[in-house]
Amino acid sequence: MPGAQEDVVEACDGEGDEDAVLGGAGQRAAYAFTPHSRPETDGYQRFKGPALAGHLRCPNHPRSMRLPHTRPTTTCPPGAECACGN
User: Fold this and answer.
1) SS3 content of the chain, % helix, strand, coil (to 5)
2) What are the two backbone dihedrals, phi and then psi, of residue 32, each rounded to the nearest 5 degrees?
3) Residue 60 bridge partners (DSSP)
4) 15 within domain boundaries
C-alpha cells in the first residue's frame, strides 16, 4: 500500500489522533501473514500464517496453543481447514 502512511499523516492533520484514524490496526497486527523468506528473482514470495509465526493461538495448530494466553486466540472451528499455520 504505497502512500498509506502519508494518508494517515494527512488525515491526522498533525493533531496526534493517528490512533483514531488507524482504527485498531495494532490489534489486527497479530493476524497478519509474515514473509517466510525474501522474494525470489521472479518476484514470488512465500508467507507464513500467524499461528506458525507465533503471533496468535489457533486450535487447529497444537503448537500454537502452547503460546501464552495473553496472545489472541482465533475463532477457527477445531478440525476445520484454516490458513493460520500455513
Assistant:
1) 30, 5, 65
2) -80, 145
3) none
4) no
| Mean pLDDT value of segment 52-73 | 91
Task: For 7-28, write each residue's pLDDT tens digit.
Answer: 444 544 555 565 565 566 667 8
Examine residue 38 and state whether it is found in any structural domain, yes or no: yes
DSSP type of residue 57: B
> Residue 55 sits in which domain range?
25-86
Tally of structural domains, the chain: 1
> How many residues belong to the chain?
86
Burial of 19 (0-12, 13-18, 19+ CB in 10 A): exposed
- Amino acid, single-letter form, for residue 1: M
Phi-psi region of 57 (alpha: psi -120 to 50; beta: other; left: phi over 0): beta
Q: What is the pLDDT of residue 18?
A: 57
Distance CA 68, CA 14 (A): 37
